[in-house]
Amino acid sequence: MVDTPETPTAKRTTGKSRTQPAGDTTATSSPVTENSGSTAGTSGWSAQIAPLKEQAEKAARTAASKISEVDWKAHIDPIKEQASKTAMSAATVAKDKTGTAMQSLAKLISDTAGTVDAKLGPQYGDYARQAAESVAGAANSLDSKDVDQLMAEARDFVRKSPAVAIGAAAVVGFVLMRLAKGSDDS
User: Structure pTM?
Assistant: First the structure.
């Protein structure tokens, strides 16, 4: 008798069964298919999953009860106050820097008014002086008001003319983008 290796049980074959070598007296086995499981295997999985499912549901209930017990307002109020203080401080610094920049711009325009007089004529020099006075007046107005007053005025302006406010915001955004892009290049 010739010994033939047996197929391991983990290896499943589908389709036609193999033929036995001549002289082998063992019976041929029928092919095993993938769907040849029993209901005992299915109930085994259910028995293994059930305790895990119960643990997960218990953990979810515990987490939900702990979340509902937390006083979120008590945790959020200090953060909200800190954010308000930081925003107010940043707005005050920005207002001061803007006022200083506007004063510098007014001085620059005023200083160039003489050059404009010489090159283009006194009429255009007067336009430059008027522009310098307007910028200086806006800078003084900005310096004299606090941030809350400026915010109230901005809200009123937006309510009265939203189209102009949107256009101004677009122009300011474009200018700020160009300034930021210019500072990135250097």
Answer: 0.47
